[in-house]
Amino acid sequence: MATIKDIIAALQSAGYPVAHDSFSGAMILPAISWTDEGSNDVYADNINYLQKSMFSLEMYTKYKSKTDEKKVQDILNGLGVAYSKNPTTKIAAENCFSTVYSFELLD
Predict the structure, then answer these.
(1) pTM, two decimal places
(2) Are 32 and 72 in contact (CB under 8 A)?
(3) Residue scoring higher pLDDT (94 or 56)
(4) Fewer Cβ in 10 A, N or C end of the chain?
(5) Integer angstrom CA distances of residue 83 from 6, 27, 40
(6) What 3 state SS string does the chain have?
(7) What kind of fold does domain 4-106 have according to CATH?
(8) How, if at all, do strands 96-106 and 89-91 pair?
(9) In the chain, what are the domain boundaries?
């Protein structure tokens, strides 16, 4: 079962700069930030039966990059992480594109 640390390590091994929430300086693209989005626990018999944490990865690229998207998706698939991918959007103020992946991990 993959952890967020496993995912971060795999992304860094693939050559991506990775930061929690935001980068302290200028990003060198492509780059990835990740955030903890809370929990989505399963409840049964008045207890938190299954604890799940929600995360998002936001990949920033200079141009829309199917190659980088495939790399990230291959990493998540290789670690057995089911994800959803939002459409790529342009961030005009930053002159880059953003693709967001959302997923849950068991605690």
Answers:
(1) 0.90
(2) yes
(3) 56
(4) N
(5) 15, 24, 14
(6) CCCHHHHHHHHHHCCCCEEECCCCCCCCCCEEEEEEEEECCEEECCEEEECEEEEEEEEEECCCCHHHHHHHHHHHHHCCCCEEECCCEEEHHHCEEEEEEEEEEEC
(7) STM4215-like (3.30.2000)
(8) antiparallel
(9) 4-106
